Amino acid sequence: MSIGTAGYIILERYNFLDALYMTIISITTVGYGEVHPLSDAGRVFTIFLLVTNIGIFLYGITTIAGFLLEGEFRKILKNIKLEKVIGKLQNHVIVCGYGRNGKQVCLELIDDKIPYVVVENDEKIHEELVESNILYIHGNATESNILKKAGIERAKAIITTLPKDPDNVYVVLCAREMNKDIIIISRASDDSSVNKLKRAGANNVIMPEKIGGAHMAALVTKPDITEFIALLTGQGSDISLTFEELPLSNLHLSNKQTTIRDLDIRNLTGANIIGLRGENGEYIINPSPDTLINPNAKLILLGSESQIQKMRKLTSEL
Question: Which of 33, 232, 272, 300 is most buried (most C-beta within 10 Å)?
Fold first, then answer.
């Protein structure tokens, strides 16, 4: 419209209103008569204006059709829906990176029925996430706005499994700054990165290669113990055993001299107390029945899924 208006003013000496009117009736092809008789130059300019306008119109139609047919519109709607679902999550886990480690983390979270969101930047992995109906955010986990989209303020934990240690350090820094109380677990490849990640705010740092190597060595030096531990954790076994943390604050203890024997958890649920975490953070392995407990402590239980469910039901009733 600007080019047409300027062209008629220059070539035909129209005033602004006549030039604008002539441009509009030309590009809209309404078929009204000319404001004033056109010169040869004006006619050539009008032909250029019409052909250009039709080309732009056809290009726009082609672009919109391709946008709809290629599924881009559907992808946008799906992303909007995903963001709404993620926006309603509370006390969920954010998993940064969906590589080998990240995928295994997600499988464990699914088994424990814990809601989670994956943050992944690789386009090739998105199809797998969509097919698996996994909630995900497309973006770089090192960007604070992406973590905000994943609900970092409402999350209870974040697990960063990015392949590069500097990226994990940056994610830990951003997460700790955005949520002071969040639990942060990070992957590390080098020993030198462990202290950096902890100083950045990580609660725990895991080195998968070191753990894997130690496990393989233990299968040689202590095979029966290693296989027994794997059995307890449900690895390669059909036996469903579960570890559970039980905050004693849930039991509303009134007697300060309460012992583990007084709780009678073994007889009531069948679950076993294998550990105790005191209010100062110290651990007692295999505590005796006479061990005194306080409301700020946590019991660590081992039992089948049904036994743990009985424990949860008992806790809710007390």
Answer: 300
Coil, strand or helix at 39 = coil
Residue numbers of the domain that contains 27: 2-69
Give the predicted TM-score (pTM) of the model.
0.63
Strand order in the sheet with 136-138: 136-138, 116-120, 93-96, 157-160, 183-187, 204-206
Per residue in 298-317, pLDDT (tens digit) is 888 888 888 888 887 877 65
The CA distance from 176 to 148, in Å, is 12
- Rounded-to-integer distance, Cα 147 and Cα 129, Å: 18
Structure tokens at 118: 């994956």
Which residues, 6 or more positions from 167, have their beta carbon under 8 angstroms from its beta carbon?
Answer: 141, 142, 160
Task: Give the tokens for residue 222.
Answer: 């202590």
Do 24 and 54 belong to one domain?
Answer: yes
Burial of residue 118 (CB within 10 Å: 0-12, 13-18, 19+) is buried
Other Cβ atoms within 10 Å of 260 Cβ, number = 19
pLDDT in tens, 260-282: 888 888 888 888 888 988 877 78
- Which bin fits 151, alpha (ψ -120 to 50), beta or left (φ > 0)? left
Q: Are 135 and 86 in contact (CB under 8 A)?
A: yes
The answer to whether residue 81 is domain-embedded is no
Amino acid, single-letter form, for residue 254: S
